[in-house]
Amino acid sequence: MSVDVVALNAAIKHESQFVDRMMKEISKAVVGQSEMVEGILMGLLTGGHVLLEGVPGLAKTLTIASVSKSISLGFQRIQFTPDLLPSDLIGTMIFNPKSGDFAPKKGPIFTNIVLADEINRAPAKVQSALLEAMAEKQVTIGETTYKLETPFLVLATQNPLEQEGTYPLPEAQLDRFMFKIVVNYPSKADELEIMNRMGTDHQPQLQAVISKDELLRARERVDQIYVDDKLRNYIVELVMATREPAKYGLANLQTLIKVGGSPRATINLIRASKAHAFIRSRGYVTSEDVKAIAYNVLRHRLLLTFEAEAEEIKPEAVVKEVLNQIEVP
């Protein structure tokens, strides 16, 4: 390692100390679910939006609210329903009878963290309005475009079981999410802790352990984390292998993958790897960082063929084969 990387590593160790404080504070309200908490934190550190998929009752909403409280960020929860309108999300122009003019009434999207609860229950027009906010960090009300607050993060949830009366997100919009995190049931020990802790009316009060300015400074540090050229090439090869599997010794995947990862997959792999290294107080990325976040970055970007669906092959199985095949530098 060069002297610069050693110095950067020391600086990151010092500046990432708030992560442990955050985790400890969030754990007062949330039992387990460390992957979900880390995923949301990585989204905040990179500006990447996160899609959480899991059955009801797995503390998705509680976790998101707890993270926003631990950083003292603005938070709005929007329950997506079939009758929701774009104006309910971004706002609209309201007539003022006193002045005789129309004035903007900003919607709940003007905050730091937006929880889009059951995002697939809202129609395409609402999803498209959210897409502009996610991609451009701005919204248009009337003829005026307004910049959204910094940081701005969309955390969306969806239930994988109930598909009747839903509007599945198109691939183009799924690609806007840095992560798709599958939230699983807690372990037996965690379930027992949840029962003991949540079985009373007493609910813990969370305190902010980091300011918004500290988070924005941490974002700048994440950008500076060192990634070796060999690892950069490794990330590109992982994504290329999902597009041309036969070229990378994965001929068995050729008939299973309809569409591979887009360039956003490459960009998000390197950004998320840096954030993963930061959370672990390192100033440099390792191959383990890339592997740790690969499933969450790639699972929603791989469109599988009908043959794969008929054989009940999941995107995670495809990602696993790619990780096993591509040589680690």
Radius of gyration: 21 Å
**What's the CATH architecture name of the largest domain?**
3-Layer(aba) Sandwich
Largest sheet: 5 strands, parallel
CATH class type of the largest domain: Alpha Beta
- What letter string, H or E per element, gives the SSE order? HHHEHEHEEEHEEEHEHHHEHHEHH
Question: And the CATH topology of the largest domain?
Answer: Rossmann fold
Uncertain spans: none
* Shape designation: globular
- The helix/strand class is alpha/beta
Please tell me the overall pLDDT: 87
In whole angstroms, the N-to-C terminal distance is 16 Å
The spatial strand order of the largest sheet comes to: 2-5-8-1-9
- In terms of DSSP E residues, the strand content is 15-25%
**Total strand segments:** 11
Number of domains: 2
Can you give the helix content as a percent range?
Answer: 40-55%
Task: Please count the helical segments.
Answer: 14
The CATH homologous superfamily of the largest domain is named P-loop containing nucleotide triphosphate hydrolases
